[in-house]
Amino acid sequence: MSSVQLYKLPAFVITWHLIAFGQYGYAIYFDRFFVHIPDDLDMPKMMRPTEYGGRSKFLTYWCLILQAVYFTICLLNDFIGTNEVAPKRMPLIRKLKDYMLAAFAFPVALNVGVTFWTLMAIDRELVFPKALDAVFPGWLNHVMHTNIVIFMVIEICTSFRQYPSRKAGLTGLGIFMASYLGWLHVVRHFGGIWVYPVLDVLNLPQRILFFAVSLGFCVGLYLLGEFFNNLIWTKELKQLRAATAGGAMSQPMVLDEASTKLDTINIV
Question: How far apart are CA 158 and CA 176, in angstroms?
Answer without folding.
Answer: 26
